[in-house]
Amino acid sequence: MSRIDTTFARLRASGRKALIPFLTAGDPSLEATVPVMHALVEAGADCIELGVPFSDPMADGPVIQRSSERALARGAGMAYVLESVRRFRERDAATPVVLMGYLNPVEIRGAARFAADAAAAGVDGVLLVDLPPEEAGDFQAAFAQADLALVMLASPTTTASRAGMLCANAQGYLYYVSYAGVTGADRLDADAAGRRLQELRAEARVPVVAGFGIKDAASAAAMAAGADGVVVGSALVSALSDAAGTDEAAARARAFLAPLRQAIDAL
Predict the structure, then answer these.
(1) 226-267, pLDDT tens digit by residue?
(2) Catalytic annotation on 69?
(3) Do 83 and 121 form a contact (C-beta atoms < 8 A)?
(4) Contact of 44 with 16, CB cutoff 8 Å
(5) pTM for the whole thing?
(6) Quick one: 237 exposed, middle or buried, by C-beta within 10 A (0-12, 13-18, 19+)?
(7) Is 49 a catalytic residue?
């Protein structure tokens, strides 16, 4: 079993929901990424989504856009991202790491080379926001060869036929975008999302997690009630953005995530 499968099986057996924080690699500094990853695990993260900085992050709101710009200005390219995962694995062999980003940096390397490099670094899955599932066949084949999960997205506008395809082909987990829009917006409707999550979970062969609009303990608990887990991104990135140094960034990561862990464990 993969780290992702093992983690969700453990959570399911204990009746708990996954907490998956997102951070942009290289922000608030190049030195802080790995310490922040460890701090998030210490605060209760079950899996980490590590954002690959990109110059045109079309699905992201201003908070993550600016974090990508800052990280790229510091030199946080794909080589840095993979090296960060390698360094994280020196202390943590169990927590799944999923790279979240866009197609262009993967295509530059080629799917097969990227998959081999990512797997060698200790990456467990990849979520490519702008890769349509209808065009994912070559990437799925290359990733499968390297035992990497290709994580897919569903949204409120996903048609029934496409949702069926996603549920049948999903690997690792299925990421449900709780509203149509960019990351960081304040329009979460937990009741509507809960109904859609129930439908997807009944059909999907992998766990279904919910993201977008989760910013604190209350919204995390509201979404976790209907999902197998929740992803929190923009609010965490914002909390880290002006940290003065590595120690402060790690402390902020723990302080931000711990209340969310407590809230979803209380369900």
Answers:
(1) 999 999 999 999 999 999 999 999 999 999 999 999 999 999
(2) no
(3) yes
(4) no
(5) 0.95
(6) buried
(7) yes
The active-site residue out of 27, 46, 60, 124 is 60
| DSSP symbols for the chain | --HHHHHHHHHHHHT--EEEEEEETTSS-TTTHHHHHHHHHHTT-SSEEEE---S--TT--HHHHHHHHHHHHTT--HHHHHHHHHHHHTT-SSS-EEEEE-HHHHHHH-HHHHHHHHHHHT--EEEETT--GGG-HHHHHHHHHTT-EEEEEE-TT--HHHHHHHHHH--S-EEEESSSS-TT-S---HHHHHHHHHHHHHH-SS-EEEESS--SHHHHHHHHTTSSEEEE-HHHHHHHTT-SSHHHHHHHHHHHHHHHHHHHHT-
91, burial (CB in 10 Å: exposed 0-12, middle 13-18, buried 19+): exposed
- pLDDT, tens only, 75-105: 999 999 999 999 999 999 999 999 999 999 9
Q: Which amino acid is at 59?
A: A
Question: How far is 214 from 85, CA to CA, in rounded Å?
Answer: 25
The active-site residue, picked from 27, 49, 124, 228, is 49
